[in-house]
Structure formats: structure tokens, C-alpha cells
Amino acid sequence: MTIYNYLKDYQPILFQTFGNALTTNNLSHAYLLDGEPGTPLKEVAFYLAKSLVCDDPNPFACDKCLACHRFEEGNYTDFYFFDGSESSIKKDSVLELEKAFSMTSVEHKGVLIYVIHNVENMTIEAINSLLKFLEEPAGKVYAFLTTNNLHNVIPTIKSRSQILSLQLIKRDVLLKLCESIALPQDDIEMLVPFYNIPSLIEEEAKSERYPEYKRAVIDTLETFSDNPKRGYLKAHELIVPLRERFVIKRVFTYFALFFKDVVNYNIGHERLFKSYDPLIKKLAATIKNPLPLIVATYEISKKVDDYVNTGLLVDELLIKMVKETTDE
Question: Which CATH number is associated with domain 3-165?
Fold first, then answer.
């Protein structure tokens, strides 16, 4: 599914609003894209930005012209991208942007564009610098900011931006759409909670990191369901060596989702991971009270951003899990 089709079929308000702005040449200088985790915020921001420089727009980017190809390859000189999903965005990055945009554009379109992904992860100093930039926008400078949590974006940024919201595709619809991609059902079920568009699910499933964190989750839970103490050792073997914070957080989030599925199994509700029903059934027989583990796991995952030692976090979670296997 292309981003164009995604917007046309599943984000009609955004599609019409931005399409009209392109057609009438009545663009805002700053757009704030808001969507829950899993929505393709960065990809949509890139596509909307690309639509401003496309040689043959319809009015959106055609994805075929030279300008579109250069943009996709990261070779469009007048475009800057800052990623707050990996680390906080510092003041120096905004100052670098201001300096670059104080000069004449290089490309013949004369349009200067920047995307700040997860704008809520900017430092206070960076936000203050950005506000000055937003307050006095140059003629053809356009910003696309994204956030997974609109409440965490300061009011002054929201007031200086046009907010465009992405709506989640419903789970049953998304699963149906994923039938067109060549992936095992268990991988689709594992990734649907985190990616709300088939193309991103397929991309993540084929990444180098996915088999690594999938194994860390499934093998640890399988071992734990057979023998909790050996599960503790397995967790240290597979989770502690992980280095990427994103991956470590995802592993803990998966634990919470599997604990939710144990609750779903116990009360006869539909599971997220139906392909893993045998594992969920074994966990239900091993863990007597999964509810406290759901809360505990989410709290532990938050500590990853505070750079708490992974081994200590694994200890904290597995000790709680072992305690829930007893009658105490």
C-alpha cells in the first residue's frame, strides 16, 4: 500500500484538507501530524513534504518524477530531517536548521522544508529556538512536525501549526489488508500492535532486528511456562545482550501484551496473538495472577529511557513473574 492510497482510503479528512491546500496554493507554514503509536507519522510527513517539490503533482507527489526519486533517496538539498524517536533533539540542531534556511534555497523550486519527527522529544532549549523560527516563518519555508502524544506538545507549538490527525485503521481491517503480504500469520499478529499499515509491518518483519527481539520474547516465555527458574536464566541470556533501547522497550511491551492475552484467555475473550494460543494456554496455567504483571511491565519499560541497566530491569520483571506463579 502506497502512502497516497493509505491517505486516500483511510485518512480522508487529511487527504482532502492537504489536497485542497496544495490545489489552491494555500499552505500553512507549519503542520503538526498527530497519531497514536503505530500510525505512519514519519512516512506521511515525508510524503506531504515531497508533494511540495514534485515535478508532476496530482496534487500529491507522483512518486515517479526525478524530484520525487531524489527526495526518496535523501538527495534533495533543501530538505532537513530530525528524528526525535531515536534521541532527544537538541538546540544545536535547530540552530543548524536556522542557519541553513537563512541562505537562499539551492533547488530551483525555491522551497525549504524540514520534518521534526516526535517533536515532543525536543529539549526545552531546542523548543525555544524552534518557537522563534515558527513565529517568523520565511516565505517558502515549511515545517512538518509529528507527535504520538498531542498533550505533550506545548500549546505555543500547537497554536502556530495546523494540526492534522491520523486515525488508526481498525485491527480487523488491518489484518485483512495484511493478507496481501507474504508473511506468516504469527509475524503479522506480532507486528499489528505496533504498525498500522501493511507496508511497515512487512518492512519490520524483514528487518535484522525483528527475529532477534521476537526470539527474546517467545523463547523466554516458552521456557518460563515450562520452568520459571529456567525462564529467568533464558531472559538474561536473550534480553540482557540487546543494546538498542527501542528493541529493549519493545521486548518489555510484548511481555505486557502476552500477559494481557493470558487475561483474555482466562475470561474467554479474543487474543491478540491467536497463533500463540498454545503458549498463552501454558502461561495461563503457570501465572496465577497476570494483572499486576501488566502494570509492572509497562512501568519497567519506561525505565529503559532512563538508561537503567537492562539486567536490573530483567531481574525486576522476572522476579515479579516468578512470584505470581506461587500462591503467596
Answer: 3.40.50.300
